[in-house]
Fold this sequence. Notes:
Elements: H1 2-34, E1 36-38, E2 47-51, H2 53-65, E3 70-74, E4 78-80, E5 84-87, E6 95-99, E7 102-104, E8 117-122, E9 125-130, E10 133-135, H3 139-146, E11 156-161, E12 164-169, E13 172-174, E14 181-184, E15 187-192, E16 195-197, E17 208-211, E18 214-224, E19 230-232, E20 237-246, E21 252-257, E22 266-277, E23 281-288, E24 295-309, E25 311-319, E26 334-347, E27 351-356, E28 363-375, E29 378-379, E30 381-385, E31 387-396
Parallel strand pairs: 1-3, 2-4, 3-6, 4-7, 5-8, 6-9, 7-10, 8-11, 9-12, 10-13, 11-14, 12-15, 13-16, 14-17, 15-18, 16-18, 17-19, 18-20, 19-21, 20-22, 21-23, 22-24, 23-25, 24-26, 25-27, 26-28, 27-30, 28-31
Antiparallel strand pairs: 28-29
Amino acid sequence: MNTCIIKFSLSLLVILHVFLSLQLFFFNHASAAELTFNIVTLGAKPDEKTDASHVLQTAWAKACDSSEPATIYVPEGIFFVRSVRFNGPCKNNAITILIDGTLVASSDIQVLANSSSWILFNHINGLSITGGIIDGQGTPLWNCKHSRKSCPIGARSLQINDGKNVNINGLSSINSQLFSIVMNRCQNVHMTRVNVLAAGDSPNTDGIHVRQSSDVTILNSNIGNGDDCISIGPGTSNMWIESITCGPGHGISIGSLGMKAEEDGVHNITVKSSTFTRTRNGARIKSWGRPSNGFATNVHFQHIIMDNVKNPIIIDQNYCPHLKDCPGQDSGVKVSEVTYEDIKGTSATKIAINFDCSPTNHCTGLRLIDIKLTYENHIAKASCKNAEGTTFGVVEPSSCLASANFYPYTIDPLGYS
């Protein structure tokens, strides 16, 4: 009798366990469905003309107010977006913007004339943007600027301010009016398989701009535009850039630094395993020729291919557009501990290495390791001003770096000393 009771009890427990598991399964799936906000379901129309801004804001409000992870889904199709602002902080730390379609801005240059950004995120912890295309429709503004008419400054396509734990994967940003993607005061950012495309003559269309941010990683991305592929501004630290194809564009630049007298420095930056094709610059550090307490230190450029690049390796501390507000062309920015390792390829000019450093703040701790850069099938030249450092391995063109003990001897970059 007792044995039968035990067997019956066990059977009940098994049935109860299965019932509860099924209930939990359906509950979780129902919850997951409730936490995916499809903008078409909410009223957006993929007709390229109906403004989806309000629908996106509604979806964001729902996702941000949820205590559970939430997804905003943009299905296939082209959705016109006038402008959107997504503000936090939110109740959860895991909001995903999943894009299968395209978000397109207005082609009317006046629509964003008073906006610094087209798509803006503020104070978000735990944001992921996955896939899709954002089209800034920048061509009319570029044409206006080329015509030298009075034009708006332009808007950045995507900007994230004060973000933490940001992940951007597979996003394509095309035809931005101004910078394509901006990270400002962000921490722990990971970008991979990002594609940026703008015309080679499009003004001020930096691909990815990072400033006042830390622990930023950019991997496996293709960038072509009319300005820096990646620009690194003041206050940036612990940044890792790897497997980037850059071109057309102005290369990967630290700077410009020293625009302000009081400015945070840049440190611990690595750029590696990347290719520059027909760009204006390759590995560049630039600072304004004016007083500043800014600095750039602990920088590594490694395993890089240059293909017909005008300035493959360059430090320019005499940056001064229109020659205004640069007393004595004397940069206060201190550049130190910069390593160039395994950089090979072709220069589009005779001077492949150009260290034009500040007369009062010499570049120090520069290291050239295994460099081979040619110009028209011959070894290129190097030019150094106020630059101190050492070389290791085979360095072609021959180094013109001065050692600290023998500075300030100069070497004529064309070899006619």
